[in-house]
Write a structure and sequence with these properties.
alpha/beta, Calcium-transporting ATPase, cytoplasmic transduction domain A, Calcium-transporting ATPase, transmembrane domain, Rossmann fold, eight-stranded mixed β-sheet, 31 helices
Length: about 850
Amino acid sequence: MSLHDPAVSRTTGAPALGPAPGDLSALQVLRALDGSPRGLTEAEAGERLARHGSNALPRHRPPSRAARLWRGLRDPFTAVLFTLGLVSALVAAWGTACVILALVAVSCVLRAQGEHRADRSMDRLRGLVATTASVQRRTAPDAAPRVREIPVDDLVPGDVIRLAPGDLVPADVRLLKARGLTVHQAALTGESAPVPKAPADLPGAGDSGHLLFQGSSVASGAATGIVVATGPDTRFAAVRSARRRRTVPSAFDRSVHGISWVLIRFMLLTPPLVLMADAALRGRGLETLPFAVAVAVGLTPEMLPVIVTTCLARGAALLARAHGVIVRRLPALHDLGAVDVLCVDKTGTLTQDRPVVDPARTDAEALHWAGASAWWTLQTAGPADPDPLDEALLAATGPADWEAYDGVDALPFDPVRRLATAVVREPGALGTHTLAVKGAVPDVLKRCVLGADERTELLRRAADRAGDGVRLLAVATARRTARTRAYTPADERGLTFRGFVAFHDAPADTARDAVRALAARGVEVKVVTGDDPATAARVCRDLGIDPGEPVPGELIADLGDGRLGALAARTTVFARCTPEDKARVVAALRAGGRTTGYLGDGVNDLPALHAADVGICPVGGVDVARESADVVLAGKDLTAIEHAVVAGRHSSANIASYLRITLSSNLGNVIAMLAAALLLPFLPMLPAQVLVQNLCFDGAQLALAHDRPDPAALRRPTVLRPRAFLRRITGFGALGALADLATFAVLALCLPGALGPRDEAAFHGGWFTENLLTQALVMLLLRTGRHAAEGRAPGPVRWAATGLAVIGVLLPLTPAGPLLGMTGLPVLYYVLLAVVLALYAVALRLLTSPRPSSPASRS
């Protein structure tokens, strides 16, 4: 029975009801809903509630813990590690299998726990929603209607409800009566100013001025309306259900996952290559399968899921605790670190979502009379809450502007005549009353005693001021002979013009600091809003952003994706945008290679929140926007975004350090291991030795999650570019392989059998020591924070590298050495090894020195 049509207005982005009920008269709507202006009976309401269900939006159900664990296991790299663990078990490499599967389990649990914690925090942030509504119902068909409060969930189509200032609109409503009604519908359309609403007996096609939508709120006035849609049939629910999954990979997918897929290919190719080479050159067959699996595992950065999850979860926990930022999707923290352009919908995000008087463009006399009019209208028109413009006027004036007068009568704001008038008695003015009139500029001026040229000049001045992004009220007065009967709109004639009062949107308290901090971090801010171009440009200027030439949404619709991408790259302000326009701008920036964040708080921001690499919503946003966002700001402090960006870069820099260190070391090891397998009469390392070496190295690398990167790495967006990154890793790996081959030469010189079969245990011990020592060097020299760490007390990475080096030297000399197939070596070996390591360290520093201060993760 609900009257519903999914049309959407092209010009404003507002939901536009179609032929039913948008284009029907009030009587036709009542007939279609089988309703009455007197309201439904309780029996009719109960029957409709059973038929249509509760007036509640479908609740977002977070995934279960099992679903979160399964989602973590589907990560490509985790899935490959899991497969390698199973293969290791099949070839009876039980130690390797247990370690790999344990790492997989830890990673999945950490990721699931972090996301579960974020969802619990979100549950505590759910905003207050309307819980009751004033509904007019009857106990029987012939009984008198009675207004009472009922739970919002019990509203049904056909109910007649009453609305007052401050009420949330609980369903989609067709107005029957209204007095001075304006509503906030920024969550639906992006318009920051309250929108006038009034009943219309025969509305025009596409007109929505007589309709109220769930998700909006009453700013001023009072209204009676009939409910035309509830629950999932409302416009709010229709937009909410139109969620779209990302079809373009996020920054995290393009970086970490991109690197992972390259490594996966190498890992899958390595075992068959080792088997074929050993079979062809050494005549060894399936007995080398455990070694081949060990080589594949050796190439694998098996701690990657754990390091990534630990870095991101630690950063997310610190953000929530210190800055009130809730990261709902852990990879979004990495995406924040890579963001280089932030698109914002200014309504409710950059601004306080309320107007303030602009003194530079306001006439003092006009402000005085406007303040008196606002005060005495509220005092004489009965109990009412001030609308946002009246609140701004009262804040800009004071009792000195009001108390000199006595209120006589008032004509509240009417959306048709677009005026509000207070009638006051001035001190000493016996026998006269003064009308203080304020309202829309054209409507006030046409009631003033002005010549044609003077009126034209005033309209031009008003247009000039409005072009600077301010909203104007015109103010006028008139004296009338005192009388006892009520004043009417017919008395608003023959006025004397007093001047203009200008308003602009008040920037959020921390918005200017946030914009400045983001610019210092290399993040460009663009405004993509449903508001007027001049208003959006004015807000930008107030925040220190050069707005350039704003682009209206009507132009976006006429551009192809290629031309829009070029326009988006050079434009700062997009205005009068529909939700689809916002999403297209964000998608165009991403297609141009930009990593994009979007900050929005309304239903009209949903498509853009989904289109961005990372969607951000402040706590004041509508519930559906908070549920759809990747990051939620628990306060209106926009500097928290800068803290979140820094935290993302911190985590990303540590992840990049891990990848750089482990891949460089592992690649060099695998190259040397393959060469040794073809040159030596024995396996270069036993599977147990590979396992112990990997365990030691992996344990030491956990310290990277707690490292402090070089401040230079936090100044610019952190982006891992897989191809360039892997090219540099290949250089580091080749250098590591040369160090390993030099060690082979040292071993051949120091061992009596010149690497014959009887030197197997000594070779294993010598190479084990050299491997752990080179890995310790790589940890110190290739990590992102090494420049900042120099000269400070040892941090976790230095302690971990020192421990790794000690194990590498001492383990072959302990009783555990022979159990692992290793023995100690002569002193000459350690002397020559020190020379090899010193040369390796110098070469490694030379290889990294051309870019000492640039973020290595940008490679």
